[in-house]
Write a structure and sequence with these properties.
Elements (H helix, E strand, L loop, with lengths): L14 H14 L3 E3 L5 H9 L4 E3 L35 H12 L19 H10 L4 E5 L11 H15 L2 E4 L6 H9 L5 E3 L5 H7 L6 E3 L3 H8 L4 E5 L4 H4 L7 E4 L25 H14 L2
Parallel strand pairs: 1-2, 3-4, 3-6, 4-5, 6-7, 7-8
Helix pairs in contact: 5-6, 5-10
Amino acid sequence: MTAIDARVVLEERSIGAWMRAAAALRARGYDAAIDFQGLFKSAILARASGAKRVLGFSIWHLRERGARAFYNETPEPDARTPEPPNSEPHVIYKNLRLAQRLIPSIDLDAPLEFPLLVPVSAPVEELKRVLGGEPFAVLNPGAAWPNKRWPAERFGEVAAFLRARHNLRSVVTWGPGEKMLAQLAVAHSEGAAVLAPSLSVVDLIALLPHARLMVSGDTGPTHIAGALGVPIVAPYGPTSAARNGPWDPRDIVLSTFDECECRYQRRCHVEARWCLGRLPSPEVMAAISARLEAAR
């Protein structure tokens, strides 16, 4: 994080906290503010910073379109950031395109690199000791949105398959409120999976480079794995992989987005037709074999 000179933290959601944050930003006299979030609140804060240049997405690429009123610069559309009706650019490219408006030397066609420092983690070292040096995959059945979760029992079936077919143990990770999901996956793994301890984001960054594979949906750990170059197989449902999926073309996304009736919703209102629930384990297993072969 050495490229970050200062942080201004919004510690609460009160008007007073916002005013203090805006004052702190104005006091620094920034030349430019970039809003990568595309929300009213982030756009207002960018404008309140006092920066002469306030950059944000075009109206078609904003999560809240009214935020456009607070920007004085937006990138022009191109082949990979089109406007309607084809307006689903990948978020990585969309963000780089916005940054290029400020830094024209950014090469949008250069290979992506994420220079993450891999830390030493005591929980991860203990987990590796428990595995006895065996190669392993990481399975992550959780997600903040219940609608993004492929059934935990099927993650267990995948773990059993990885052990039987590819001689890989599985480490099942979990975040806040997800431990029961992880335990359910382990219970259905026929002894092939172990439950990870509680891991911070830093611990996860320490763990993932040692994994042969990551199986996870559209959630933070998947994108951390992608940044670290870990091979990924990802079940996607209510979100578009073209917009939010792994960047490496060798990674495999199994998407039910086209048939999903609850797109971009935390919970599916048509439970009997829940799209990710219709993705069978054998399809994921076949994708895993293909991705492991491509990683050789």
